[in-house]
Amino acid sequence: MTAFTAELIGTMFLILLGNGVVANVVLKGTKGHDSGWIVITTGWALSVFAGVVIAAPYSGAHLNPAVTLGLAIAGKFAWDQVGLFIIAQLLGAMLGAFLVWLLYKPHLDITDNPLLQLATFSTGPAIRHPFSNLFSEILGTFVLIFVIFYFTGPEMGDEKTPIGMGSLGAIPVAFLVWAIGLSLGGTTGYAINPARDLGPRIIHTLLPMKNKCHSDWKYAWVPVIGPVLGAGLAALLYLLLKA
Description:
- With 243 residues, this protein is an all-alpha fold.
- The chain has helices spanning 3-26, 37-59, 65-73, 82-110, 114-119, 130-151, 170-184, 194-206, 222-242.
- It is 67% helix and 0% strand.
- The longest helix is centred in the middle third of the chain and has 29 residues, at 82-110.
């Protein structure tokens, strides 16, 4: 398996299981309906675990443009590979969202709240305030990237596992994402990953659904720009402290 394929498939599983748990909780008629935030954050943590296990040996398991950019800014990943990884992550996120739609289509059809339908694809703020929402995404992603840098010390990665979340081990990364979701995720739904939000939002725009609303493109810049800024700040602080 190539690094491109690993990022695509790993991100697909990340979104399939991550957005899948959201669908299970918020859509009508599911076995997990209304089971709450703890179920969602736990499901997302385990989805990261699954994606990392799949992709780690081949790509390092970035699964997130913010991780790819943060590693590149810190000098730990080649810039000429950044675009390729981000394309794979975006395509994987789109494919994962399509599979969630396919699986939960009967429940999407009977869910008469279009915002709950949208929630199974992309994130949205609990209180709409652009600056606060952007700060939430910056801070959540900053924590993700900065802690990743210190999981295994300055020289993380080895000859067997390419640089990325996979070089840390799937379990620590899953716990980190779980902690971010539990502690910081209640404001915006903690996208902390541009591909995780943008890819499924595109799919929501394209797919037919009963009671479907707009895809909230006015908000879509927040879960893209926020993680990029958070990753950049984490990488720059890491380099400053390392010097």
